[in-house]
Amino acid sequence: MKNLFLLFFSFILCTKVSAQNNISVKQKEKLAFPELLVFSNEFENYFSSKNKIEKIVSDKTFLEGPVWVASLKGLLFTDMNENKIYFWNKKKGLSLWLESSGYTNGLLLDANGSLLLMQGNHNVTHQTKRQIGKIVNPKSNKTITDFVTNYEGKKFNSPNDASINSKGTIYFTDPPLGLKDGDSDKEKELSFNGVFKYENGKAKLLIDTLNRPNGIGISPNDKLLYVTNRQNLYCYELDTNGDIVKAANFFNIPQVWEHMIPSTKIGWKAWDGMAVSKEGVVIAAGCGGVWFFSPKGILLAHIQTPEFTSNTAIDDKEEYLYWTAGKLPSEKGGSCLYRYKLR
């Protein structure tokens, strides 16, 4: 009787899905974690669905901000609760790269190869800088200097994630997630939670209407800006100056909820960080795992995970996808780093 019910449920699910955008779904009675589910054959135009998923680091507190650093030939990523930055590559494995990172969340390489650190993301105080720090030439240097320190003389809330366009303009989010009491925290100096761009030595406010701006990414042609905000994944059209023109209807978010299998819905139903491939595929973390969207916003695939997935990164050759994931609330030993061979 149980097998008959499962067969009937799978038939109904596959029928419903195939009626929507001709998406075919691979379903199993028992799903391993993590596992790739492909919804569209278009996925194979960009990546391979036949490669394995590997857990390469485990037993950390709350991993975030992965970024591939070609000069180091490996991946840097943060454990923001532990105030550390780790390094990993296949040859040397895991090592502690920097302690006392300023409670960094996201990491980014600027146009000159300097490492940018989104600092102040764990119960900050008036002594916490709450800024973007910089490490010039991370191959031979680990000294953090001040970079983007304030907006109109006021401290940021807790810079969270950042992206960069082809001209070197930096975009970043500033939610209150590092403030112990959030919007009501006495240390909060800004009256809003913003999305900014930074160029020519100055931060410019682009959005002040999102309550929890988080992950951020930019299309390869610099025309689209992607921002996550709790259960929403927004898209904005940019002009030639890199400023927002209007919001764009890009992602079919209800379709994401329909494709979340029950076992993944126990996770935090919210979006976090993302990566954008050179071909414009948006790879977004959160909501039960990692989600792949085509350059036109079509849902391609999903790597479902049992943990909350916090952020993603792609190496410089686009051979591997890396992502961080962990339990919520965060606890020591509950966070991991994974990778998936894309090509």
Automatic annotation (TrEMBL):
Q: Name one Pfam family in it.
A: SGL
Keyword Glycoprotein present in the record's keywords: the answer is: no
Q: Where is the SMP-30/Gluconolactonase/LRE-like region domain?
A: 64-324
Give the signal sequence positions.
1-19
Protein's UniProt keywords contain Signal: yes
Keyword tags: Hydrolase, Signal
Q: Which domain of life is it from?
A: Bacteria
Q: Which PANTHER family does its entry note? A: LACTONASE DRP35 (PTHR47572:SF4), LIPOPROTEIN-RELATED (PTHR47572)
Under which name does UniProt file this protein? SMP-30/gluconolactonase/LRE family protein
Question: What are the top taxonomic ranks of the organism?
Answer: Bacteria, Pseudomonadati, Bacteroidota, Flavobacteriia, Flavobacteriales
